Amino acid sequence: MDANAVLDIAMQGLLVTAKLAAPIVITALVVGFAISLLQSITQIQEVTLSFVPKAAAVAVALLICGHWMISEMITFTNVLFEKIPSLLGGG
Fold this sequence. Notes:
- The longest helix is centred in the C-terminal third of the chain and has 41 residues, at 47-87.
- The protein contains two helices and no strands.
- With 91 residues, the protein is an all-alpha fold.
- It has one domain (3-87).
- Belongs to the FliQ/MopD/SpaQ family.
- The chain crosses the membrane at residues 20-39, 51-70.
């Protein structure tokens, strides 16, 4: 196994990680911004007002995207397992 193969696997891993994290991070960002905007308009500065809706939105995003996330991880893992013989020089 050479350095290019290691870098290729690392790059694929980072891309899969970014794809899997994107729905959760974007959901938290959008809900957090909306709640922050609402708090600044109404001047209500309550910590739980920003945390609870964000946690609920992330939970809903996980419920919606969870199946897709798991299938992406399984596909990535299967591709890595299929590459093992060629990485070891046997195929």
